[in-house]
Structures are given as C-alpha cells and as structure tokens.
Amino acid sequence: MNATDIRKELHDYIETADVSILNAIYEILRASEGQDEYEISDELKQLLDERLKAYYSNPMDVLTLEEMKAKYKKQ
C-alpha cells in the first residue's frame, strides 16, 4: 500500500471513528512531533567520542557489517 492509499484509508476511517479513537490518534500524532531530534546523555556522548577516537587511531580494527556476517557465518 502506498502513501496515497494509506492517507485515503485513514481519512475514510477518521470520518466515522468514535471520539475516543480520534483522541488517541491525535495524541499519538502530537507525541510524535519533533521525534527527529535526539538528545544523548553526556555519558553516551563520552562513550561515542571514545569509540570514534579508537577508530581513528586504528581503523583496521573495525569490520563492516558484511565482514562481520561472513566471519560469524564461518563459526
């Protein structure tokens, strides 16, 4: 189902939905606003910085996803 079909189906559903369902949908949509922005803790930022520094100091120690899959498939 493509986005246009989903929009039409949701619109049709909303036209006949009970008010409690409408309130639930509204709250879900409102809660999801701004979800593209992420805040990370200082602790997590420090861990990520340490891992990035370790990578830059020795990038050969890092495996790609494909390399990791191949390595563990052999085991």
Topology, element by element:
Layout: H1 3-16, H2 19-32, H3 42-57, H4 65-74
Please explain how this structure is put together:
There is one protein chain. The chain is mainly alpha-helical. It has four helices and no strands. The radius of gyration is 23 Å and the shape is elongated. The mean pLDDT is 84.
Please describe the structure with a list of short key phrases separated by commas or semicolons.
75 residues; mainly alpha; 4 helices; 72% helix; 0% strand; elongated
Sheet having the most strands: none
Number of helices: 4
Strand content: under 5%
Backbone CA Rg? 23 Å
- Cα distance, first to last residue? 40 Å
Q: Based on Cα principal axes, name the global outline.
A: elongated
H/E element string?
HHHH
Helix content: over 70%
Low-confidence stretches at least 5 residues in length (pLDDT < 50)? Answer: none
Broad structural category? mainly alpha
- Care to count the β-strands? 0
Mean pLDDT: 84
